[in-house]
Write a structure and sequence with these properties.
This protein is α/β, with parallel strands linked by helices. It has one domain: Rossmann fold (3-Layer(aba) Sandwich). 20% of the residues lie in helices and 33% in strands. The strands form 2 sheets. It has a 6-stranded mixed sheet with strand order 4-3-2-5-6-7, with helices on both faces. Strands 1-9-8 form a 3-stranded antiparallel sheet. The protein is globular. Bound molecules: inosinic acid (IMP) and magnesium ion (MG). Inosinic acid binds next to strand 3, strand 5, helix 3 and strand 8.
Length: 184
């Protein structure tokens, strides 16, 4: 398969094959942990969509989808520190097993906030599945229950992750060199 043209010049951190293998393992783990139960996969728009789509197909359980949306970043890579809920879940998740699906756990501000929002819906259980974890940047003490890869403090794009809304469609996870990051 040919790489999209926007791939040019970016260093690949994880290839599509490495991602697929890890996502399959995460799906198997979730399937074991919730054997015989239903789960609601709650994705954080838009970064988690590709991960959720692949993870869901590796989960052999009765599963439904819902989505949340937040704003915490500007157009580029800088964290404003303020998280706002732009869209709540469509359906009640009271009494359900929720798996909050996110692209990356960075400062932890977003997932700490969303954990509180979803807990207010009184779920039966609430777990976090994040494809990537960047612990060096953590401000809020929060850990994921299912983590794909723990990465160094680099700005990454692809497989759903963006820089100013670009690069989400890259099949691999790539690093944006610091020199290419503006102060948007
Ligand atoms: P947190 O609230 O700082 O944990 O940030 C979570 C959000 O920041 C993620 O959902 C991403 O949208 C964004 N983010 C954090 N690090 C990166 C990165 O390296 N690349 C792209 N987006 C990132
Ligand atoms: Mg995001």
């Amino acid at each position: 398969m040919a790489a999209p043209i926007v791939h040019a010049g970016l260093e690949v951190l994880y290839t599509r094959d490495q991602i697929a293998r890890r996502v399959a393992e995460m799906g198997e783990q979730i399937s074991r942990d919730f054997a015989g139960q239903k789960v609601v996969l709650v994705g954080v728009l838009k970064g988690a969509t590709i991960f959720l789509a692949d993870l869901a197909r590796c989960i052999s359980l009765d599963a439904t989808f819902d989505f949340l949306s937040t704003s915490s970043y500007g157009k580029g890579h800088q964290q404003s520190g303020e998280v706002k809920l732009l869209k709540d879940v469509d359906h009640s998740v009271e009494g359900q097993n929720i798996i909050l699906v996110e692209d990356i756990l960075d400062t932890g501000l977003t997932l700490t906030y969303l954990h509180r929002v979803l807990n207010a819906h009184q779920p039966k259980s609430l777990k976090i599945a994040a494809l990537l974890d960047k612990p060096a940047r953590r401000i809020q003490k929060i850990e994921g229950d299912y983590i794909g890869f723990t990465i160094p403090n680099k700005f990454v794009v692809g497989y759903g992750l963006d820089y100013a809304e670009r690069y989400r469609n890259l099949p691999d996870i790539c690093v944006i060199p610091p020199s290419a990051l503006g102060d948007e």
